[in-house]
Design a protein that fits this description.
single chain, 260 residues, mainly alpha, two-stranded antiparallel ribbon, 8 helices, 4 strands, 46% helix, disordered N terminus, DUF3716
Length: 260
């Protein structure tokens, strides 16, 4: 049953399910747990398979065929059978409107950025009202072969000669408390980048002011040289005009008076 379920074609629409075609066998919890047919299971799949099964997937009424051969859908189904149920008004907005392939809203703590299994299906986790704000959409498969998703790094700025990055890895997120700590860490790093930008601007201003000061000092030296040249020219003019002789006579008379 596992192989036929994995090979089936997904006909689940992104809206309330209303199917009238003949029912076909749908994947059970045992089918979902059997990931041996997956060439390269994702890290999330491997971790979820190790958790105890607490329920059957609970496919929504009217579902006929399901594709759990795609990594993201298998992850969604595994979360559905091992996660925490959110009933009534505790369910996410989309689940309350009967969207998604599953009959119930189930989350797997610390995974899919908080999105429930229904919303994570078909890489649509960003629409979930449980999704952490401003989180990068990381629901898409990493490659066509269904390989493991690796930690994604986003460059958020530059500190000195080092790029500042934060890692978004759906498979390493822990409890909500840790998510809050991660959010605080990102906010602090963003603040650090802002401060670094301001420091860089201040350094540039200081350099500009230093250059301006050096230019003013050079201008002052030039003016001092000009002033000396003007004084020398004035002395030369006085000497040629006879002013120097008069001054010399006055100095001689003063000397004679002092001698008498």
């Amino acid at each position: 049953m596992a192989s036929s379920a994995a090979a089936s074609t997904n006909t689940a629409a992104d809206g309330p399910q209303n199917r009238n075609s003949s029912p076909q066998p749908l994947p059970t919890a045992a089918d979902i747990l059997n990931i041996t047919s997956i060439a390269k299971p994702s890290a999330a799949m491997t971790a979820l398979v190790a958790l105890p099964v607490v329920r059957e997937p609970g496919w929504r009424a009217g579902m006929t065929t399901i594709n759990i051969g795609r990594n993201v859908n298998r992850e969604s189904a595994l979360a559905q059978i091992t996660g925490v149920a959110n009933t009534g008004t505790a369910a996410c907005d989309h689940c309350q409107k009967s969207y998604g392939p599953f009959d119930g809203c189930v989350t797997s703590p610390g995974r899919f950025s908080g999105s429930c299994g229904n919303c994570h299906w078909n890489s649509s986790g960003a629409r979930c009202s449980f999704r952490a704000p401003n989180h990068v959409n990381d629901d898409n498969d990493n490659d066509s072969s269904g390989g493991c998703r690796h930690a994604k790094r986003r460059r958020v700025g530059q500190l000195g000669n080092h790029a500042v990055t934060t890692a978004d890895d759906d498979d390493t997120l822990a409890a909500p408390g840790d998510e809050r700590a991660m959010a605080l860490h990102k906010a602090l790093m963003s603040t650090a980048v802002t401060l670094n930008t301001a420091a860089t601007a201040a350094t540039a201003t200081a350099k500009a002011l230093k250059a301006q000061g050096e230019m003013l000092a050079a201008q002052a030296d030039a003016l001092d040289s000009l002033q000396r040249a003007v004084v020398d020219a004035a002395d030369l003019f006085a000497e040629e005009a006879g002013f120097a002789a008069i001054d010399d006579e006055e100095e001689e008379e003063e000397e004679l008076e002092e001698g008498a």
